[in-house]
Design goal:
By secondary structure, the protein is α+β, with helices and mostly antiparallel strands. It is built from 5 helices and 5 strands; from the N terminus they run E-H-E-H-E-H-H-E-H-E. It starts with 19 loop residues before the first strand and ends in a 5-residue tail after the last strand.
Length: 196
């Protein structure tokens, strides 16, 4: 990057110690997801891709309000987390619904068998408990989905969705930059110690 002084790192240390990373901002979650999928298809592991934690966690760590996501791109103090894709979130929400239903259905069947209830009573009790499990699990799944959507909207309002990709060679650097740009990544650049 020609204007290295613009970023808060040096060629010797970089913002993440000896890690060399490609960085990009995305306007939409679909573009971000497409970039991550493409990276994984080209040999980048899940562990090489990271995202910032929620903004309130970042503000607590950096001790000032975050007005622009762009200011976080090269800040080593920003707490990170693994990227969780839409499919994984959907699977997690399904588990939140299915597990309570399953547990309460089993509980209903156990109670019915233990108390010698008539068939219709056992069915009513078991189905009723299953519905309670579905409503409870659905409530928490809906809250989880709402929090994820609010987080995306909040980051978009402050400049975009930030992604870091760890690289280990010039070939990986070039590949990561090309993929990030291909999927509408903005402000795409590298940071970290130069590879000689």
């Amino acid at each position: 990057m020609p204007d290295q002084q613009h970023w808060e790192w040096t060629a010797e240390t970089g913002p993440r110690g000896n890690l060399r990373e490609a960085v990009a901002l995305f306007s939409t979650e679909n573009d971000l997801q497409a970039a991550v999928d493409d990276l994984e298809c080209h040999g980048f592991s899940n562990a090489a891709v990271s995202r910032p934690k929620p903004i309130k966690d970042i503000e607590a760590a950096v001790h000032h309000p975050v007005n622009s996501i762009q200011e976080l791109e090269d800040d080593a103090s920003v707490p990170r987390e693994a990227y969780i894709d839409k499919d994984s979130r959907s699977s997690g929400m399904m588990v939140m619904i299915v597990v309570p239903v399953y547990v309460l259905l089993l509980a209903g069947a156990g109670i019915a068998a233990g108390h010698g209830l008539a068939t219709w009573e056992a069915v009513v009790l078991t189905v009723g408990l299953g519905l309670i499990g579905m409503l409870g699990g659905g409530y928490y799944a809906m809250r989880y989905a709402r929090r994820a959507s609010e987080r995306v909207r909040e980051e978009q309002a402050r400049g975009g969705l930030l992604l870091w990709v760890r690289t280990g060679s010039r070939a990986q650097e070039d590949r990561a930059l090309e993929i990030l740009r291909r999927h509408a990544g903005r402000d795409v650049h590298l940071h970290g110690p130069a590879i000689h």
